[in-house]
Amino acid sequence: MNEWDATSYAGKDTILRVVREEAERLFALAEPEEAWEAPTACTGWTTRDVVAHIVDTTEGYFAAFDAARGGGDPGTAYGLAGMGDRVNAQALALRGVPQKELLDRLKADFERMQTILRRLGEDEWAGLTVPHFYMGPLPAYFYAAGQLMDYAVHSWDVRQGSGRAHGLPGEAADLLVPFMFVLWQSTIRQGADLTPFEIGIRVGGVNGGDFRVSVGARGMTYEPGGLEGLPAVIEFDAGSMVLTTFGRSNSGTVRGDLRVADRYLNLFFRI
């Protein structure tokens, strides 16, 4: 039983607790009047736009769960390649909503999403398939991780815009590490050179370890394993892996062939 494995029901209470803590952190950052128009790490976005983006994303989750329970046709997944442009347009469309109104809407959406996730039973946590607008069918637990990505990474974005030194909270980073491998798999650049090669990834934290990554014509695969005989290994702490995968930083320590590591790190578009 691993309470830090959000893909298992044993980790449900842990991830929902950490999501709430990160959400409350973002609410506090966004509430001062002077914060609303302050810049963030997201190009062209102020705190207002970050809030609008999470509103749009969360309300999309409601539609996804309705579809999963027979409430409608989810249609074809939009794909991650076009996600950046679309979420920008969706966020900017809410710029006219007053600060208090939009924050109240975000808080209400957050509580509604927490209720949906809390009501999931053990069979549903991993067994209920829910159609994600951008990624297609996903297990229900991914939506808890999606909320954590939204609140933890975007809180980081708001703090980064302030110019003050800061970091990513450890519990959030640890919970997100397994999902970063999935994100890498889903964000390989169109037309990327997929001539086969292998590389090692070493990650710190409770969900860390050593992973052998293979890249080839079918994309990227990974599995826990020893790193012996690999041409290069990239070492990350949990937070650095999350921020690198999301394109917020270029982090990691490369041991071995720098060219192999460079090739790997540049396989992906960032979201």
UniProtKB/TrEMBL annotation:
Pfam families named among the record's database cross-references: MDMPI_N
Residue span, Mycothiol-dependent maleylpyruvate isomerase metal-binding domain: 20-159
Protein name as catalogued: Mycothiol-dependent maleylpyruvate isomerase metal-binding domain-containing protein
